[in-house]
């Protein structure tokens, strides 16, 4: 998983990650930790302009497969919110090194697809976990950039193959992740035969948005069977809730109309009514004593509300 030359260099200079030691959670200085060479994984290094990557430092396809499998074991092992950040940053850096080896070697498209299809679910799930747990120093923009790079290389490799072999679950996740881009509606038509029934799943969600049927959209989102699909859709949940509440405030603005918060919470797939109220208070100036109902009559939209900077509770949904 790590070239011998890098192992020797990092051992000599004491550049060892806690997860590469005998006891990563023991409270002791780095220099006193006992490194385990067998657990060391090649780290990402940005190549200098005048320095070429040595062929001996490149890992084979089988070695990259083994590395990915090993790294993903940390994802399920360290679910504790205190330990998750250490695992997340370790996996993310080592995955970047995997992609670097993949690119430099110019691996065949079929092998690139296989490797990327194993890494992409991590980026989709960890985005949700990092946002939910408010992981310290989490860089949302960088994470999205790396996810888009993975999707882009995966799709490029797939397009280069005459005989298309790919994960149908991954393809639907790809389209769901870009559901806010109308151009993907036309692109999915090219894959209609290969995706079969999954095409209708995307179309149902997409057209629900187009016609403003947000209740149906959230009902369908909740019923998605694969976790990778729900994670792919997660970044869009807040924006579509925002659009839905705008539509509801116009449709149910009659003087005598009230909506039960339990019903509204169910329509928009909120995990609890408190999150619904947080969102409502962000957008509107409402009667704070309305109890278990919402009344949009003469409600005022808050001028300082920014739908491009939604807080976490806008995305709270049982995944």
From TrEMBL:
GO terms for biological process: mRNA export from nucleus. PANTHER family: 80 KDA MCM3-ASSOCIATED PROTEIN (PTHR12436), GERMINAL-CENTER ASSOCIATED NUCLEAR PROTEIN (PTHR12436:SF3). Gene3D superfamilies: 1.25.40.990. This is SAC3/GANP/THP3 conserved domain-containing protein. Residues 1-281 form the SAC3/GANP/THP3 conserved domain. Pfam families: SAC3_GANP. InterPro entries: SAC3/GANP/THP3, SAC3/GANP/THP3_conserved. It comes from Acrobeloides nanus. One of its GO terms (cellular component) is cytoplasm.
């Amino acid at each position: 998983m790590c070239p011998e030359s890098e192992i020797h260099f990092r051992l000599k200079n004491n550049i060892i990650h806690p997860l590469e030691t005998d006891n990563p959670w023991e409270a002791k200085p780095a220099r006193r930790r006992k490194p385990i060479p067998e657990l060391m994984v090649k780290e990402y290094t940005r190549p200098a302009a005048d320095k070429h990557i040595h062929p001996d430092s490149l890992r084979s396809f089988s070695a990259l497969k083994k590395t990915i499998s090993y790294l993903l074991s940390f994802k399920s092992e360290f679910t504790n919110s205190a330990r998750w950040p250490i695992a997340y940053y370790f996996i993310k850096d080592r995955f970047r090194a995997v992609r670097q080896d993949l690119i430099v070697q110019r691996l065949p498209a079929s092998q690139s697809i296989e490797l990327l299809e194993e890494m992409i679910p991590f980026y989709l799930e960890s985005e949700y976990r990092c946002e939910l747990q408010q992981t310290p120093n989490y860089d949302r923009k960088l994470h999205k950039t790396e996810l888009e790079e993975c999707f882009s290389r995966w799709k490029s490799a797939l397009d280069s193959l005459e005989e298309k072999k790919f994960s149908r679950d991954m393809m639907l996740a790809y389209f769901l992740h870009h559901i806010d881009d109308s151009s993907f509606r036309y692109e999915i038509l090219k894959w209609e035969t290969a995706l079969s029934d999954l095409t209708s799943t995307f179309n149902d969600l997409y057209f629900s948005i187009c016609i403003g049927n947000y209740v149906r959209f959230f009902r369908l989102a909740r019923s998605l069977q694969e976790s990778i699909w729900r994670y792919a859709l997660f970044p869009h949940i807040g924006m579509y809730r925002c659009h839905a509440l705008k539509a509801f405030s116009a449709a149910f603005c009659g003087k005598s109309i009230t909506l039960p918060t339990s019903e509204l919470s169910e329509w928009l797939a909120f995990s609890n009514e408190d999150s619904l109220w947080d969102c409502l208070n962000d957008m509107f100036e409402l009667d704070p004593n309305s109890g278990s109902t919402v009344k949009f009559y003469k409600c005022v939209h808050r001028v300082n509300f920014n739908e491009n900077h939604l807080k976490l509770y806008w995305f709270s949904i049982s995944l």
